[in-house]
C-alpha cells in the first residue's frame, strides 16, 4: 500500500500484539471487571491494527503537501467510528458488571443453571422430562371417554 | 425509486428518536412505532418488486461517487430479507403492545422498549442494505447495542447473568469482525463490496483464505454455527417473550445473511466450503440433540434454532445455485416459524404461568386455540408436508443430492435425521404440554389472553402457512436471487457500472 512514507512500523505492530494478547487473556477470566478490562485492551489493539492498514504520512488535507505524501484518511475515519463504538460497548459492559455486583455481591459470571441440571441428570442417567405416556386412559377420564362414564360414576357415589 | 433505499434505515431511526421524546405518552409512542414499522414494510415490498423487475436498486449516500462514499444496495436477496424482517418485526411489535396491555404481564415493556426496538430494526435493515464491509459492521453494532438493552431489560438477576454472556460474546465477535475489516482494507485498499470482488480475486490464495476465515469466524459467532453456538441457548430464553422472538427470528439470520454475502460476493468457490459443510452438519445434529435433552420450552426452541441454522449453512456451503436458492428460502421460512414458536411460548407462559414442561399439561383442552397455534408452526418446523418447512428442506436436500459426493451425501443424511428429530422434539412438547391431564403452573384465575397478542401470533402462523401457498413464486424469486449472487455481475454492475468486466 505504502508508496511513500513509513510503512507499518514494528513498534506499533508489537504494541498491537501485546494489547490483543493481554486483552484475550483477561477475557478468559470469570470476573466481569477483568473481562471489561480485557475488552478495553482488545478494542484498542484492534483499533491500532486498523490504523496500520493505511498509509502513514502528512495530514490528509489537500494542498498542504504533495498528494503522494498524504496519509490515508479512510482508516482514520474508521478508527474514529470504531473508538466510539468500543466506548459505548465498554460503558454498557461496565453498567452490566455494576448491576451484577449490586444484585449478587460479586461480578462473576456463574454457570448456567439449566446446563448444570441437564448435566447432573445425565450423570444419574435420567430423562430430562419423563414422557412415559403418564397417566394412561384412566388417569384423565375426560381424555378418552368424556361425559357419560364420569357422570354415571358420580351418580353411583351419590 | 432510489430515494426509497435508505428509508428502511432512516425511518426506524427517526421513529426511535421520536418515540424517546414521546416517552410520557405511551399511546402516542405505540402509534409512532407501529407507523414506522408499517412504513418500513411498505418500502421493503416496493424495493423487492423493483429489485426483482429491474435489478438491484442502489443509492450513493451523500452523492459521493462509489469507491469514496458509502453505498446502500437493495438487490433481491437484501430486499427479500427486508420484507420478511419488517413483517416479522411489525407482528412482534403488535404482540409486545398486546402484552403490555395484559394485567398479568410481569415483564411489561418499559418506556425504553419502543425506541430500542426501533433502533434494533434500523440496525438489522442497515446490515441487509450495506454495500460495504464497514457499513455492515456499523449495522451489526447498531443492532447489537440495541439488543444488549433489550436482553437485560428490567435488569433482574437472571437477565443480568444471561445477558452478560451474550454481551461479552457479541463484543468478542465484533472485535473479530473489526479485525477482519482492518485486514481486508490493509490487503486491498477498499471496503466496498463490489470493488472487493475484483481486488480480492487478485490476492494470493492464502491471503484470501485467511481473510475469508476471519470474516466467517465473526459471522459464524453471530449466526450461532455449532462450535460457536453455545452462547445462544444460555442467553436467549430469559429475555421477555417478544424480545426472544425477534432475536431468534432475526439476529442469527443477519449472521447467515452476512455469510451468504461473504461466500458468494467476496469469496466464491472458496476453499472454506468443506469446513462450512462439516460445521453445518454438526450444527444440525448437535443442536437438535441439545433440544432433545431440554425440559423448558424456550430453551428447547433455542436449541432447534441453532440446529436449523445448519440447514442454511449447508445450502450456502454447497455453493450451487440450487443450494443457495434453498438456503434463502429456508432463511425466509425459518425467520417466520422460529419467531412464531417463541411468541407461542410467550402465550403459554402468559396462560399457564410457565414454559417449563415439567409443570405443564393438558393445554390443548384448557386453551384449544393455543394448541392450534403451537401445533401448526411446530409441524412446519419439523418439515411435515405440505408446509414450507418441508419444501425448504426438500429444496436443500435435492441440492445436496444433485451436488453429489460423500460429504454432501453425509449432510443430506444429517439433514434428514435432524428433521426427524425435530419432529420427535415437537411431538414431545405436544405430548407433555398439550396432552395429559390439565396442569397449570399458576393458580391464578383464568385471564383472557389479550386479543392483540393472539392476533399477532395468528398473523405470523398465517404468514407461515402463506409461505407454503406461495412457495412456487417464492422459489422463483430465491432462485433468481441465487443466480444473481452466483453470477456476481448484476451486483457489481449496479454499484460500479464502469468496473464491469
TrEMBL record, chain A:
The keyword Membrane applies. Residues 118-158 are annotated as: Disordered. The keyword Glycosyltransferase does not apply. It is a multi-pass membrane protein. Residues 149-158 have a biased composition (Basic residues). The chain crosses the membrane at residues 6-28, 35-53, 73-96. GO terms for cellular component: plasma membrane. Keywords: Cell membrane, Membrane, Transmembrane, Transmembrane helix. It comes from the Bacteria. Belongs to the CPA3 antiporters (TC 2.A.63) subunit C family. This is Na(+)/H(+) antiporter subunit C.
From TrEMBL, chain B:
GO terms for cellular component: plasma membrane. Its main location: membrane. The chain crosses the membrane at residues 6-25, 32-52, 77-98, 110-130, 136-154, 166-187, 207-232, 239-260, 275-293, 300-321, 327-348, 369-387, 407-426, 447-471. It comes from the Bacteria. InterPro entries: CPA3_Na-H_Antiporter_D, NADH_UbQ_OxRdtase, ND/Mrp_TM. It is a multi-pass membrane protein. GO terms for biological process: ATP synthesis coupled electron transport. Residues 130-421 form the NADH:quinone oxidoreductase/Mrp antiporter transmembrane domain. Keywords: Cell membrane, Membrane, Transmembrane, Transmembrane helix. It is found in: Cell membrane; Membrane. The keyword Membrane applies. GO terms for molecular function: NADH dehydrogenase (ubiquinone) activity. Belongs to the CPA3 antiporters (TC 2.A.63) subunit D family. This is Na+/H+ antiporter subunit D. It comes from Micromonospora endolithica. The lineage of its organism: Bacteria, Bacillati, Actinomycetota, Actinomycetes, Micromonosporales.
Amino acid at each position: 500500500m505504502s508508496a511513500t512514507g513509513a510503512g507499518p512500523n514494528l513498534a506499533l505492530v508489537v504494541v498491537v500484539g501485546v494489547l490483543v494478547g493481554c486483552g484475550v487473556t483477561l477475557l478468559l477470566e470469570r470476573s466481569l471487571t477483568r473481562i471489561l478490562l480485557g475488552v478495553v485492551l482488545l478494542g484498542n489493539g484492534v483499533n491500532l491494527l486498523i490504523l496500520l492498514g493505511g498509509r502513514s504520512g502528512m495530514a490528509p488535507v489537500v494542498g498542504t503537501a504533495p498528494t503522494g505524501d498524504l496519509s490515508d484518511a479512510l482508516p482514520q475515519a474508521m478508527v474514529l467510528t470504531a473508538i466510539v463504538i468500543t466506548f459505548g460497548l465498554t460503558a454498557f459492559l461496565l453498567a452490566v458488571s455494576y448491576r451484577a455486583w449490586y444484585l449478587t455481591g460479586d461480578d462473576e459470571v456463574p454457570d448456567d443453571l439449566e446446563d448444570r441440571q441437564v448435566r447432573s441428570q445425565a450423570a444419574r442417567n435420567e430423562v430430562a422430562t419423563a414422557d412415559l405416556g403418564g397417566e394412561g386412559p384412566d388417569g384423565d377420564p375426560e381424555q378418552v371417554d368424556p361425559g357419560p362414564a364420569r357422570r354415571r360414576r358420580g351418580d353411583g357415589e351419590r | 425509486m432510489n430515494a426509497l433505499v435508505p428509508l428502511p434505515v432512516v425511518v426506524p431511526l427517526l421513529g426511535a428518536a421520536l418515540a424517546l421524546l414521546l416517552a410520557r405518552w405511551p399511546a402516542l409512542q405505540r402509534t409512532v412505532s407501529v407507523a414506522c414499522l408499517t412504513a418500513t414494510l411498505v418500502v421493503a415490498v416496493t424495493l423487492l418488486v423493483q429489485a426483482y423487475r429491474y435489478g438491484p436498486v442502489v443509492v450513493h449516500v451523500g452523492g459521493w461517487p462509489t469507491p469514496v462514499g458509502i453505498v446502500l444496495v437493495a438487490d433481491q436477496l437484501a430486499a427479500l430479507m427486508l420484507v420478511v424482517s419488517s413483517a416479522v418485526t411489525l407482528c412482534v411489535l403488535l404482540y409486545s403492545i398486546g402484552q403490555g396491555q395484559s394485567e398479568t404481564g410481569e415483564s411489561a415493556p418499559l418506556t425504553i422498549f419502543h425506541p430500542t426496538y426501533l433502533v434494533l430494526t434500523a440496525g438489522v435493515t442497515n446490515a441487509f442494505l450495506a454495500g460495504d464491509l464497514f457499513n455492515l459492521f456499523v449495522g451489526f453494532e447498531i443492532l447489537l447495542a440495541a439488543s444488549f438493552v433489550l436482553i437485560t431489560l428490567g435488569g433482574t438477576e437472571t437477565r443480568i447473568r444471561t445477558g452478560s454472556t451474550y454481551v461479552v460474546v457479541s463484543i468478542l465477535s465484533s472485535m473479530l469482525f473489526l479485525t477482519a475489516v482492518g485486514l481486508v482494507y490493509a490487503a486491498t485498499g477498499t471496503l466496498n463490496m463490489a470493488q472487493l470482488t475484483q481486488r480480492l480475486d487478485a490476492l494470493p490464495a492464502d491471503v484470501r483464505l485467511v481473510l475469508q476465515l476471519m470474516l466467517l469466524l465473526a459471522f459464524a459467532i453471530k449466526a450461532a454455527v455449532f462450535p460457536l453456538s453455545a452462547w445462544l441457548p444460555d442467553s436467549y430464553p430469559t429475555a421477555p417473550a417478544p424480545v426472544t422472538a425477534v432475536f431468534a427470528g432475526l439476529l442469527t439470520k443477519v449472521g447467515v445473511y452476512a455469510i451468504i454475502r461473504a461466500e458468494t460476493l467476496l469469496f466464491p468457490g472458496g476453499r472454506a466450503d468443506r469446513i462450512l459443510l462439516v460445521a453445518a452438519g454438526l450444527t444440525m445434529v448437535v443442536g437438535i440433540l441439545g433440544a432433545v435433552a431440554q425440559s423448558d420450552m424456550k430453551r428447547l426452541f433455542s436449541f432447534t434454532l441453532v440446529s436449523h441454522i445448519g440447514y442454511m449453512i449447508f445450502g450456502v456451503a454447497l455453493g450451487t445455485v440450487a443450494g443457495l436458492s434453498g438456503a434463502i428460502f429456508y432463511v425466509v421460512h425459518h425467520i417466520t416459524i422460529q419467531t412464531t414458536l417463541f411468541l407461542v411460548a410467550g402465550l403459554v407462559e402468559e396462560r399457564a404461568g410457565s414454559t417449563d414442561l415439567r409443570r405443564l399439561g393438558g393445554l390443548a383442552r384448557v386453551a384449544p386455540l393455543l394448541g392450534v397455534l403451537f401445533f401448526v408452526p411446530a409441524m412446519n418446523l419439523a418439515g411435515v408436508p405440505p408446509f414450507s418447512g418441508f419444501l425448504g428442506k426438500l429444496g436443500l436436500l435435492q441440492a445436496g443430492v444433485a451436488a453429489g459426493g460423500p460429504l454432501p451425501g453425509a449432510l443430506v443424511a444429517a439433514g434428514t435425521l435432524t428433521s426427524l428429530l425435530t419432529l420427535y422434539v415437537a411431538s414431545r412438547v405436544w405430548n407433555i404440554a398439550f396432552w395429559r391431564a390439565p396442569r397449570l403452573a399458576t393458580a391464578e384465575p383464568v385471564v383472557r389472553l389479550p386479543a392483540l397478542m393472539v392476533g399477532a401470533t395468528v398473523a405470523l402462523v398465517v404468514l407461515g402457512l402463506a409461505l407454503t401457498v406461495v412457495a412456487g413464486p417464492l422459489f422463483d424469486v430465491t432462485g433468481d436471487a441465487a443466480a444473481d449472487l452466483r453470477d456476481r455481475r448484476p451486483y457489481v454492475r449496479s454499484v460500479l457500472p464502469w468496473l464491469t468486466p
